[in-house]
Write a structure and sequence with these properties.
- This protein is α/β, with parallel strands linked by helices and about 290 residues long.
- The chain has a domain of about 200 residues: P-loop containing nucleotide triphosphate hydrolases (Rossmann fold, 3-Layer(aba) Sandwich).
- The protein is built from 15 helices and six strands.
- Strands 4-3-5-6 form a four-stranded parallel sheet, with helices on both faces.
- The radius of gyration is 18 Å and the shape is globular.
- The two termini are about 35 Å apart.
- It binds adenosine-3'-5'-diphosphate.
């Protein structure tokens, strides 16, 4: 199936129509934020699921019950997904935690008025590409990636779901002086999960003991999350995500792109990256 079959174009980006029907996009447009809401913002495949595990544990000071009893999409719902309409989010007690893949320019009026807290997770785009390639091959609601070369052109030119990685990151980085935002990289979380949990806790105004930080980090390591059926997407029917083709929690490492990119693809990616990111001052840990 093609983009015309599976995607809708909304505010300049492709969205898979089966998960984002018009009524869910409208629901998000009208959604009212609270100042103490916490919003996890990511480009897809940058570590959303990971942060959907860490954040509730930080807020609950290490109480594991929510990650053991609620699937991640109900624990930290995506505001743009149809499911958000069904969850009575208005009734949830504060602080609520949500996820979104929206670019900043796509955010609704209430976001700009209320400025809830944002945890923006970034990941080396070559690893985002590699993870996406496998994911697009196993998820039936997405257009099949084709060859790596074909998918690379779509990825670079923002012709996959949620548009361009480059525009997403640049747009959210520009908000650094205006929004209430913590930038954190997937690679930092890989390198020092305990330190990352502490940074997130500090940003969210939680003072956690060393034991609690350790407990949270231990519960959120890749191998433990992979065993947790509330987080490993095993509750999703196989016709929607075929994890026999590729697991959702696939490898969970930094730098897997090196096992995937050819030399020509690396050159193409690097040249594109340098041009697109030349005006960005932020120091990325993968540069
Ligand atoms: P890989 O496909 O490279 O393994 P998202 O949740 O935004 O869709 O991102 C999915 C990516 O995050 C996958 O990357 C997945 O394995 C990785 N991931 C999820 N939880 C993780 C964890 N606890 N540790 C490391 N990586 C994790």
């Amino acid at each position: 199936m093609t983009e015309a079959d599976l995607y809708v174009e909304y505010k300049g980006v492709y969205l898979p129509k089966s998960v984002h029907p018009p009524e869910s996009l409208k629901h998000y447009e009208d959604f009212i934020f609270r100042p103490d809401d916490v919003l996890i913002v990511t480009f897809p495949k940058s570590g959303t699921t990971w942060m959907q595990e860490i954040t509730p544990l930080v807020l609950s000071e290490g109480d594991l019950s929510s990650v053991q009893s609620l699937p991640n999409w109900d624990r930290v719902p995506w505001l743009e997904e149809h499911r958000a309409i069904l969850l009575n989010l208005e009734q949830r007690p504060s602080p609520r935690v949500f996820a979104t893949h929206y670019h900043r320019y796509m955010m609704n009026e209430s976001y700009f008025k209320v400025k809830p807290k944002v945890l923006y997770v970034m990941r080396n785009p070559k690893d985002v590409f590699t993870s996406s390639f496998h994911y697009f091959g196993m998820a039936s609601y997405l257009v099949k990636p084709g060859t790596p070369d074909e998918f690379l052109e779509k990825f670079l030119n923002g012709k996959t779901m949620f548009g361009s990685w480059f525009d997403h990151v640049k747009g959210w980085l520009k908000a650094k002086d205006e929004d209430h935002i913590l930038y954190i990289a997937y690679e930092e979380m890989i390198q020092d999960l305990k330190g990352s949990v502490s940074r997130i806790a500090q940003f969210l105004g939680k003072s956690l003991s060393e034991e609690v930080v350790e407990k949270i980090a231990d519960s959120c390591v890749f191998q433990n999350m992979k065993q947790n059926k509330m987080s490993n997407y095993s509750l999703v029917p196989e016709e929607f995500m075929d994890q026999k083709k590729s697991a959702f929690l696939r490898k969970g490492i930094a730098g897997d792109w090196k096992n995937f990119f050819t030399e020509a693809q690396t050159e193409r990616f690097n040249a594109f990256y340098e041009d697109k990111m030349k005006d960005v001052e932020f120091k990325f840990c993968w540069d």
